[in-house]
Design goal:
This protein is mainly alpha-helical. It is built from ten helices and no strands. The protein has two domains: 253 residues, Up-down Bundle (Rhopdopsin 7-helix transmembrane proteins); 64 residues, no CATH class. 35% of the residues are buried. InterPro entries: DUF6534.
C-alpha cells in the first residue's frame, strides 16, 4: 500500500507542492507586470494577463482541494482511492484555456515577425486549436467516468493531447527562431541581440514541451501510476510563467543597446502595414527627433541601428494594433 500510495496520490501531492511554487512565481511575475506596464500596455494585453492569473488561481485551488479531499477528509478510507472525483477533471478545463490563450499569443508574435504571413501562422493556429479541442474532449469524457481504472481507457486520447501540445509549442518556437535568424544582418550588435532573443525563445518554450513529452512517455512506461499526472498538471503553471516572463523581459532585452527601426523584420511588434498605406509608417514611439528621423523607405525589409531611438523590442506601440 505504501508503494502504491507513493506512486499514485504521492505524485498528486508532489504536483500540488511544485505547482504551488510555480504559482507563487507566476504571481510575482504578474505583480511585476502590472507595476511596470499598467500605463503603457493596451487593455487587451492586460486583460489577457489577468485572465491567465485567474485561471491559474482557480486551477491551483481546485487541485489542492481535490488532494485534500482524498488524503485528509477521507483519511483511512481506502474506498475513496479508486474513485475519480470530478474536481480532478474540472481543473483541466482551466489548464486547457491557459494553454490556448498563451499559444494564440505566441502565434500573434509569429504573425508579426513574418510580416503577416498567413501561410506560416494558420497551420500553427490550427495545431494549437487541435490540441485544445483534444484536451477538451478528453476532459468531457473523463467527467463521465467514476473510477481511475476507467480512466485508463482514455490512454490513447491522453497521449494525443500531450503530443499535440508538445508539437504546437515546438513548431511555434521553430517559426519564431526562423524569422529571428532571417532578420540577421552584418551589424554585430543587432545580431547579438537577435541571438539573445533566439535563446530566450527556446528557454520559454522548452519547459512546457518537456512536460508534455514526459507525460506521454510516463503514461506508457508506468500506466498504473499517476506519474504522468504530475507532468500533465504542471503544464498550466509553466504556460503562465512562460508568458509573464516573456512580457517582463522586454526591458532587459531593450537594454542590450540595439535599437531596430520601423522597417525591421525581427522582434519589432508594430502594427502590420499594408503596402498601399506607406504614408502610415510612423507608429513606433521615439525618444527624440521622431518626426525628423521617420523612415522614408516604404515597406521594404531592412535592419538598422539608430542610436537616438529606443523601441520596445517585443511590443512596440501595441496600443495601435487593430
Amino acid at each position: 500500500m505504501a508503494s502504491s500510495m507513493d506512486a499514485t496520490f504521492g505524485m498528486l501531492f508532489d504536483a500540488v507542492v511544485v505547482g504551488a511554487v510555480l504559482y507563487g512565481a507566476g504571481c510575482v511575475q504578474g505583480y511585476m507586470y502590472f507595476r511596470k506596464y499598467q500605463k503603457t500596455d493596451p487593455w487587451y494585453l492586460k486583460s489577457l494577463v489577468g485572465f491567465i492569473l485567474v485561471c491559474d488561481t482557480l486551477q491551483v485551488g481546485i487541485l489542492t482541494a481535490c488532494v485534500y479531499q482524498y488524503v485528509i477528509l477521507n483519511f483511512a478510507n481506502e474506498e475513496i482511492l479508486v474513485i475519480l472525483l470530478n474536481t480532478l477533471i474540472i481543473e483541466i478545463f482551466f489548464s486547457d484555456a491557459i494553454a490556448l490563450v498563451v499559444q494564440m499569443f505566441y502565434c500573434w508574435r509569429v504573425w508579426r515577425l513574418s510580416q503577416g504571413s498567413y501561410l506560416v501562422v494558420v497551420p500553427l493556429v490550427l495545431l494549437s486549436w487541435a490540441a485544445f479541442m483534444s484536451l477538451l474532449v478528453y476532459s468531457c469524457l473523463s467527467m463521465q467516468l467514476s473510477t481511475f481504472a476507467e480512466l485508463t481507457t482514455l490512454k490513447n486520447l491522453s497521449m494525443s493531447c500531450n503530443i499535440l501540445a508538445a508539437a504546437s509549442d515546438i513548431m511555434i518556437s521553430i517559426a519564431m527562431v526562423f524569422f529571428l535568424q532571417k532578420a540577421k544582418s552584418t551589424h554585430k550588435k543587432t545580431n547579438s541581440m537577435l541571438n539573445r532573443l533566439i535563446i530566450f525563445t527556446f528557454n520559454t518554450g522548452l519547459p512546457v514541451s518537456f512536460c508534455a513529452l514526459w507525460a506521454c512517455i510516463s503514461i506508457n512506461a508506468w500506466p498504473t501510476t499517476f506519474i504522468y499526472m504530475f507532468f500533465f498538471l504542471l503544464q498550466g503553471r509553466l504556460y503562465t510563467n512562460s508568458l509573464l516572463v516573456s512580457l517582463n523581459s522586454r526591458e532587459y532585452i531593450k537594454k542590450g543597446g540595439n535599437v531596430l527601426t520601423d522597417t525591421c523584420t525581427s522582434y519589432v511588434m508594430h502594427p502590420y502595414h499594408d503596402p498601399s498605406r506607406d504614408n502610415e509608417l510612423s507608429d513606433l514611439p521615439t525618444s527624440r527627433d521622431s518626426k525628423r528621423s521617420q523612415s522614408q523607405d516604404g515597406p521594404g525589409l531592412a535592419i538598422r541601428i539608430d542610436t537616438t531611438r529606443r523601441t520596445d523590442i517585443q511590443f512596440a506601440d501595441t496600443s495601435k494594433v487593430a
